[in-house]
Amino acid sequence: MLHRPLLLAVPLALMTAASLSFVSPAMALDGGGDDPFELAQATPPASPPPAAPGAGPERRDDRRAFNPRAFCLDRIAHRAGNRAAVKVRLELKPEQMTAWNAFAKAADDADAKDIARCNALPTEMKDRPTYLQRLDVEEQVMKARVERIEAVKPTLQAVYDTLSPEQKAVLDQPRPMGGMMRHGRPGPR
To answer: At a CB cut-off of 8 Å and minimum separation 6, what does 30 contact?
Structure first.
């Protein structure tokens, strides 16, 4: 990865030098008095401004604080937005709305539990948690997710059973895994 910029820089430098060799003699014959290379050499380079304290690679331990509560609440908001988007894309018929409303209520109830869990989180974390602390958090998140799935799945199954094959195709589209790439067409959660 470090070689790629070097591989691109060398041909660029060679092309620049070659093009300057054609330009410089032409400028000398023209008698142009303001040679940019002479002007650049005549003025000493300005020293860069001093770096702010804590800036730069020498202070990698000084990271921005992380807000676990806001991150958690954002995920719930995205989930609710995704549900609304799926509802619109499904173009539900009036006879399907009863099943959807039951699912939406179960999902909203699960969201309320998640919001309570999120509100118990700190608003700022400056220090990186230890490996065991991260493992504990991961375990809690997974347990909450399983609890959410168990609460919502029966009502989602009821919605799914009312869908036409075309609507099922909308809902069955694969979702990106892991949460890092949520730009696809996620289904309801």
So the answer is: none
Q: List CB contacts of 172: < 8 A, sequence separation 6 or more.
A: 187
Residue whose structure tokens are 């493992």: 135
Domain-located, residue 187 = no
Question: What confidence tens digit (pLDDT) does each residue in 3-60 have?
Answer: 444 444 444 444 444 444 444 333 333 344 444 444 344 445 555 555 555 555 544 4
For residue 16, give both structure tokens: 């620049």
**140 assigned to some structural domain:** yes
Q: Nearest 5°: phi and psi at 22?
A: -80, -35
Whether pTM > 0.70 for this model: the answer is: no
Amino acid letter, 46? A
Angle at 82 between CA 77 and CA 85, to 5 degrees: 130
For residue 60, being part of any structural domain is answered with: no
Q: Answer yes or no: is 23 within a domain.
A: no
Whether 50 contacts 111, CB under 8 Å? no
CA dist 143 → 86, 115, 137 (Å): 25, 15, 10
Answer positive or negative: Cα dihedral of 23, 28, 30, 36.
positive
